[in-house]
Amino acid sequence: MSDSPFVPQMFAYDSTLRDGAQAQGISFSVEDKLKIVQRLDQLGISYIEAGNPGSNPKDMEFFQRIGELKLKHARIIAFGSTRKVKAAVESDNNLRSLLAANTPAVAIFGKSWDYQVTDILRTTLEENLAMIADTIAFLKGHGKEVVFDAEHFFDGYKANADYAMQSLQAAASAGADALCLCDTNGGTFSSEIHAITAAVVARFPKVQIGIHCHNDSEMAVANSVAAVQAGARQVQGTINGIGERCGNANLCAIIPNVQLKLGLPCIPPESMATLTSTARYVSEIANATFNEKAAYVGNDAFAHKGGMHIDAVTKNPISYEHINPELVGNARHILVSEVAGRSALLARMHRVDPTLGKDSDETKLVLEKLKELEHEGYQFETAESSFQLLVRKLLGKHQPFFDLHEYKVNIHEPALNRMNSSVTIKISVDGQQEITAAEGDGPVNALDKAVRRALERFYPAIKDIKLTDYKVRVLDSDQASAAKVRVLIESRDQFEGWTTIGVSTDIIDASWRALIDSIEYKLVRDQERQALTA
Ligand SMILES: CC(=O)SCCNC(=O)CCNC(=O)[C@H](O)C(C)(C)COP(=O)(O)OP(=O)(O)OC[C@H]1O[C@@H](n2cnc3c(N)ncnc32)[C@H](O)[C@@H]1OP(=O)(O)O
Ligand SMILES: CC(=O)C(=O)O
């Protein structure tokens, strides 16, 4: 490995902790911010815009503590606005806070749309240019690297190109190190972004030009890439695209687009494989639901379901994958479902019998049964473990772990201590009979307790199973109380998680099927692990 420091050709500028924190439902604690900064630094981000020191005490505390961290790649940026109208920079509270943040670099947003100056700032066009110039000169005088965010630049340019350019000129003449063009309202089209950015790059050939896009027209990533193609060399965005309204440009798509497709390195090549885990990490800390459909980093980004696609991808992945998923730390998923073909089944069938091929009778049998069960309401793409058990059963390789003789469910109303249900169950293992009973908060809970109690004597490892989720979906609601239900149960032990499924017109029966698959899958996996270590 080379010891020479990585030199980006494109500066990745992350605003998750500033613009991302302006998203509805997001609020990072100081500890959250410190953790995210470290993770972004490991990813190799060049700039981290980490908050507004003039906005709130939490952000100021963050800036007081950030010095504790030793960062390898990132420069921390404190964010604020140009000075107030008709005010002196020296006495401006926002600017004092920016200096108190003690960061090597600052970002200042200022108006570049004439209408925003007259109607929102309610001042003259000349005063706004003076606000920009005074603020940047003041910060440069304090030794800061300064990024000028030209707010509403594209709308401003379309309304009054001359004034929009004057705002950039004021910033550049005052010493700004980068001029960042903002599509603040997120309504600009990629062709306009490209043309306007190209005009700015031509006018300011010696200054770094940045791009900051919002996603109000679902075009933030495309617009950012268009600006890069027009010559922008700093690209702003947030992890997972979180941000105000519809969000910001998503760096998890922009970084691989720019680095892998346009050939402009923005993070060290060896960090690219941590992109997917970084996206999940930030989502977890933000307490946000992760978008599994996200390009590059979502679970579904390389999930193949159509039988013909699976067949082709198995022959050569580039047939239906735009990049190798491992480059961004993601993985290929082959889904089994009613739209699968034989190729989709082979990897699962080989776990049970490696000699089987695409043309084996067993492969056709499993495919037919899969389609029949999916027609009945099963959905195996989300219940891989039940499918794996089905394959074992159809191939005659499954040895049942117990025989069920009967179970009886009773509902007690009124409930005592929320235990409104009880179950008695009779099973046998190798001829030894066991009868147990259990009470539960609902019949499924009572059933779960009773079957575990009955089996634990024979299979103590069952104690390690934790049921982590239980989902019920009514499949044909027009049948009212006779409708079929699909139950999905997610389980975990100390090694892994797994999902099983049951379908029936009776919710207790559907739950029983999913529950028994869960227990049997655990026992099968324990056997497989023992065989590996034997
Ligand atoms: C596009 C963007 O994302 S820009 C960043 C937006 N982010 C935020 O607003 C989050 C942080 N903001 C805050 O915490 C608060 O708004 C503060 C502390 C900065 C200011 O709070 P307040 O002083 O109470 O003002 P308030 O938020 O109500 O109004 C904003 C003021 O800033 C002025 N302002 C807006 N843009 C600028 C600018 N570029 N330069 C100078 N002043 C500006 C407005 O005209 C308004 O001034 P006024 O009070 O004289 O009418
Ligand atoms: C500065 C900024 O966040 C914007 O204009 O969108």
UniProtKB/TrEMBL annotation:
GO biological process, one term: isoleucine biosynthetic process
Pfam families to which the protein is assigned, alphabetical: HCS_D2, HMGL-like, LeuA_dimer
Reactions that this protein is recorded to catalyse: pyruvate + acetyl-CoA + H2O = (3R)-citramalate + CoA + H(+)
Keywords annotated in UniProt: Amino-acid biosynthesis, Branched-chain amino acid biosynthesis, Isoleucine biosynthesis, Transferase
Domain Pyruvate carboxyltransferase per the UniProt entry, residue ranges: 10-279
EC number, as in UniProt: 2.3.3.21
Pathway in which this enzyme or protein is active: Amino-acid biosynthesis; L-isoleucine biosynthesis; 2-oxobutanoate from pyruvate: step 1/3
One GO MF term: (R)-citramalate synthase activity
Broad enzyme group: transferase
Family: Belongs to the alpha-IPM synthase/homocitrate synthase family.
Name under which the protein is recorded: Citramalate synthase
Organism: Pseudomethylobacillus aquaticus
